[in-house]
């Protein structure tokens, strides 16, 4: 079992990338249905100016992303980290009638000389409650169920793989996919309609609805073939022992317990992700001595061998050893100092 677990773990520890199939995405928000609007042109992601931006425009974005109804037109600057100065602003004066399939089908103008990033548009959509993990111990583990015509049903394991599990975990705001398997016993099997089979995701899709699949309700599957997925729970972080919430020893919350992070392999990329995730600006360079000055922690050492590329929005998207597996002591606890307070 341990070997299988490590194998699965090794396969799915890449950074999460959003939006290869859709040319719009929402960044910096708590889930894929809220954030600053970005659109893709020729492989580059740029922002949208909020001149004339209204709820009809947001409605189109929400639909395009497979999210629910449009709830608001927040300013893009609410979502951290802010757009980089050099990032392009691709659209302005967007005027949708609300029925278009994609933002690019609306009327809009490319002429962006009088827009700055403090006018970036944002979008707030309802998270579509059409996927869930049922019958498990929490919302991030269970039998995959999808809602169609107002009715929840299961998904057949045929054609399903870890990339599809990754999409579901991300869509639900959980961490990485750590396991997918058939529902193996009667207690974990579903009932009623088996809605989907042959769902094939590359892993880059923003939601399960972007993955090709067989027709709704047309399959020869039985509930013994229902799909079961386990994702990591999202975890919280904090910096403790410093003067402000933006400096100190790093702690992460797992299973309701705060624990420290070992500094093996820790560096500037990892610092950067922590400062970004906490909305604390840039990281400041720290000597080993300064890093240790926040004192050793006590209790659990949750994470070790953390590796980020620096582009991740949160530490969950970085690689690390399995929770609680380490070869460290508290003298090696990670500390971080960021530029803003
Ligand atoms: C899952 O299947 C899809 C499509 O069949 C494929 O693109 C993807 O690479 C597969 N992922 C894994 C982890 O095997
Ligand atoms: C279900 O099985 C029947 C009989 O074997 C076959 O004709 C049919 O094509 C199958 N349907 C699907 C959706 O695979």
TrEMBL record:
Entries under Gene3D superfamilies matching the protein: SRCR-like domain (3.10.250.10)
Cystine pairings recorded for this chain: 96-106, 201-211, 308-318
Protein source organism: Rousettus aegyptiacus (Egyptian fruit bat)
Keyword Nucleus: no
Highest rank taxon of the organism: Eukaryota
Pfam families, A to Z: SRCR
GO terms of biological process kind: zymogen activation
UniProt keyword annotations, A-Z: Disulfide bond, Glycoprotein, Repeat, Signal
Name recorded for this polypeptide: CD5 molecule like
SMART domains: SR
Segments forming domain SRCR: 24-126, 131-232, 237-339
Signal peptide interval: 1-18
GO molecular function: serine-type endopeptidase activity
GO cellular component assignments: extracellular space; plasma membrane
């Amino acid at each position: 079992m341990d070997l299988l677990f490590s194998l699965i773990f090794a396969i799915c520890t890449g950074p999460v990338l959003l939006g290869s199939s859709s040319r719009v995405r929402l960044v910096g928000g708590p889930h894929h249905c809220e954030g600053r609007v970005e659109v893709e042109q020729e492989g580059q992601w740029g922002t949208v100016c909020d001149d004339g931006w209204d709820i009809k425009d947001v409605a189109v974005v929400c639909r395009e992303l497979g999210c629910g109804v449009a709830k608001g037109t927040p300013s893009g600057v609410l979502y951290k980290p802010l757009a980089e100065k050099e990032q392009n602003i691709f659209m302005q004066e967007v005027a949708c009638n609300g029925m278009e399939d994609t933002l690019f089908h609306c009327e809009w103008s490319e002429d962006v000389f009088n827009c700055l990033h403090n006018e970036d548009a944002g979008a707030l959509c309802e998270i579509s409650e059409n996927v869930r993990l049922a019958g498990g111990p929490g919302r991030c583990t269970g039998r995959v169920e999808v809602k169609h015509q107002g009715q929840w049903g299961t998904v057949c394991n045929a054609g399903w793989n870890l990339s599809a599990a990754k999409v579901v975990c991300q869509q639900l705001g959980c961490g990485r996919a750590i396991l997918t398997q058939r529902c193996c016993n009667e207690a974990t099997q579903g009932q009623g309609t088996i809605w989907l089979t042959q769902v094939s995701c590359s892993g880059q899709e923003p939601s399960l609805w972007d993955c090709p699949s067989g027709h709704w309700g047309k399959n020869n599957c039985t509930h013994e073939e229902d799909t079961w997925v386990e994702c990591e729970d999202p975890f919280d972080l904090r910096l403790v022992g410093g003067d402000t919430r933006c400096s100190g020893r790093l702690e992460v919350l797992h299973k309701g317990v705060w624990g420290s992070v070992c500094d093996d392999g820790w560096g500037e990329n990892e610092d950067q992700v922590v400062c970004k995730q906490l909305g604390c600006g840039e990281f400041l360079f720290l000597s080993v001595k300064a890093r240790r000055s926040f004192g050793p922690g006590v209790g659990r050492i949750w994470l070790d061998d953390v590796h980020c590329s620096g582009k991740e929005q949160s530490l969950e998207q970085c690689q690390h050893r399995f929770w609680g597996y380490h070869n460290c002591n508290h003298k090696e606890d990670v500390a971080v100092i960021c530029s803003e307070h």
